Amino acid sequence: MNENRIGYVLSADTLGCIAGRRVNPAANPSFGEMVKISSQDQTELYGIISNIHILDDGLVRQLATAQPIEERIIRDNRENRIIPLEFSILFIGFRQNGRISHLLPPNPPLSLESVFTCTNEEIGTFTTAGSSGYLRYLVADKTALNFDLVAAHFQNLYALLQEDERKFWMDKATRALIHLYRNDYETLNALLHTLSDAAVFTE
Amino acid sequence: MDEKVLNKNTGKEIGTVIGGSLAESLTARLQVSPQEIQEGSFVTIKSGDWQFYGLITDLRLGATDPRFSDEQIDAYFPPAVAEILREEVLYSNAIILPVLMFENGPDYDDANIQNFLNWKEQKEAEGELMTRPIQIKTIPAHQSPVRLASETDIATVFGDEKDENNFKIGITREQNFPVCIDLSHFIQRSSGIFGATGTGKSFLARILLAGLIQQNKASLLVFDMHDEYGFDDTASDTGEKVTGLNTFFGSKVQVVGLGGGRNIRGNTPGFQVEIAESDIVPADIEMLSVELNLKETTATTLSALVSSFSKNWFSEFKAMKSGSMITNEEGKKVPAPDSVAAWANENGVNVMAAESLHSKLGRLFRANYITANPSANGLQNIVEILKKGKHIILSFSGYGTDLDYLFISNLITRKIREEWEALTNAYRNGTGAANEPRPLVIVVEEAHKLLNREMAAQTAFSTIAREMRKYYVTLLIIDQRPSQIYDEVLSQLGTRICGYLTDDEDIRAVLSGAAGKESLRSMLSHLQPKEEVLIAGWGMPMPIPVRSRRLDKRFWQELVRNEKDPLRAEDLESQKKKLGF
User: Fold this and answer.
1) For a designed S-S bond to A4, which of A24, A116, B78, B117 qualifies (C-beta 3.0 to 4.6 A apart)?
2) pLDDT single digits (tens) B47-91
3) Is B79 on the interface with A (CB under 8 A)?
4) ipTM of the predicted structure?
């Protein structure tokens, strides 16, 4: 399991958490990636990375004023300093006693709880359970970022699922989203344009 | 889309109820393409233990937001998204006119039939098990499933084709399920067949008449203005041979010619009817006031003629000479003794009025079918044949003017009215061994000529339409301009069978007095020009558009198969007599 660890929880609430890790360009988390976090009561929380933050400190700000910055200084700053890479996670469900729920978790994770990337099998099991109800958490605040989050999620699923499962899932998830916003022309229009741009419907 | 079929008695589910009211209509969201549904489709709605029956009267396109309707969905979205978007945000609603309701218990399939049986047993024990649908009194709940009617639903409402009292009038337009009419119920009130010219009114009338004859429900008197009903004919549009009622039913149907020595399309009629001059009464003439352009003085003159000559007034008046003058002893020109003027002077009648009437009656005086001494009492023959349960088709071959039609049909109908009133009164008074009178249906083509606003009050037909059902006589009127028929008569029509009509006034007239007429109006205006009719009113539990049967070989073959065994009927009668009934 350790090889999938991508960070540790820094802060959390019921809706989501912020996790951090050392910057590693080769293994940094990706926008839209599904993760899981163990919780206090043997519950596995599932979430999606909804934002990634590259933080600064006083030195970085000062370095930015230098013209030009030497390559070794840039590399040193990225590889040796201990400013964490932070990423936000939206909770989309949990598994408790082997049962998957597309609901918010009963308890948020504690700080420094490990954040793991989900395996393909876990992603498949979670996303195909129920009727894609977890998608509502992705578009809850109707921001452009969240529409792209959905697009990223679709792209991930497109790459992950077998051909025979792919169309079924895409149709089901698309229908669930359209159903959610069928009375909201602006939101649905923006969401579907974003999804269309994700180029997962080319078949 | 999955078809939810609970058992073989339920039709395909097409949507769910999303709103509506009892006073207006129900709205159902369609789960199927609107092309699968047609205006006029007969649908059922299951809500709890109740089954509701209704008609789709309108189909409407809708969108969760109108801007989706305008959106060029295919241009902006991939096909997979566009397809789902269309399904989710664009929809079709069906407007349903609910008409009947029936408590038929819970839905069931093979697995839970016991629930239904338990329900049925309990209802039977309580004496509350319904046997037939009733008029709608409440509405189904939200989200109740709407299904296309199954063959069983159609049979529940309109009767089973296998029941010998039911006669298949046509089939439903979508699924070709047979739609029946209870003819014994149908003939209890006057009825009408309407449609623009060329829409098959006469064919449909022949189908109905064949059913009435085959089921032996009533005697028929058909005023056959165009010689279509008795003998074989050729369809004007298809060129196919059309079997006549006399050809098929033989001696049960007597074709009667008007006047002596004429044949009907090369066929010899059963007998010829001539009108005795003594049978004509003033009312028969007054009824022709429009056709003969009679003046207001006509009634006075006719009254004086009857006073003078009693029953022979027509013969005597006919024999008078108009304008004939002689010179008297004083050398003055005076009216000849056999002149109209002489009679008028003697009886205090205005000479000019009498001479005018004489002149106008000239067309009747010259009619070949009116004679002083007919070889037989044709009118009485017709009445006797009808009383015996046989049928008369009175062909107007060669006498095709409106005057002939109006005069003959009214005169015969008046005679029949008198006879049937006497028969009914005798039956009701219990005098002698009077049997219940044989129901009689008088079939009138071009009915607007007899039943228009001016004529209706004067003819026997209007009385029949209004009152004679108590005396076992009803009308079946066939017409292409129902708007020309007097409202009071039209409102008395029980069953209305209506084909394609284009005129708004005609459509309005046909639907006068009908419930939900605005909905039916749209349906009526969208009927196919041929073979589709809307049947509504007394004879049908609820209005329904049907594709009418074709009057072809198959029709006659089916009629033969359904023919009741006369021996069996006689046996039954003799058995009843033996048992003292």
Assistant:
1) A116
2) 999 999 999 989 999 999 999 888 888 888 888 888 888 888 999
3) yes
4) 0.83
Domain locations in chain B?
Answer: 13-158, 180-267+381-572, 293-360
Q: Which residues of A touch B78 (CB under 8 A)?
A: 196, 201-202
CATH number of B180-267+381-572: 3.40.50.300
**Residues B473-519 pLDDT 10s:** 999 999 999 999 888 888 888 899 999 888 888 988 888 777 777 77
pLDDT at B521 (0 to 100): 83
Q: With respect to residue A124, please indicate whether it lies within any of the assigned structural domains.
A: no
Q: What is the DSSP letter of B260?
A: S
Whether A11 and A94 map to the same domain: the answer is: yes
Q: Are both A114 and A171 inside the same structural domain?
A: no
**Total structural domains in chain A?**
2
- In this prediction, residue B137 carries a pLDDT of 93
What angle in degrees, to the nearest 10, is found between the helix axes of B298-309 and B351-360?
A: 90
Domain that holds residue A179: 131-203
pTM of the model: 0.77
- On whether both A91 and A148 belong to a single domain, the answer is no
- Contacts with A192 from chain B: Cβ below 8 Å: 77, 81, 85
Neighbour-count burial for B376-389, b at 16+ CB within 10 Å, e otherwise: eebbebbbebbbee
Q: Are residues A160 and A80 in the same domain?
A: no
How would you label B230-251 residue by residue, b for 16+ Cβ within 10 Å and e otherwise? Answer: bbebeeeeeeeebbbbbbbbee
Write out the DSSP string of B325-368.
Answer: EEE-TTS-EEE-TTBHHHHHHHTT--HHHHHHHHHHTHHHHT-T
| Chain A interface test: which of B1, B65, B68 (most A C-beta within 10 Å) | B65
Evaluate if residue B29 carries a pLDDT over 90.
yes
Q: What is the pLDDT of residue A112?
A: 93
Q: Is the Cβ of B117 closer than 8 Å to some Cβ of chain A?
A: no
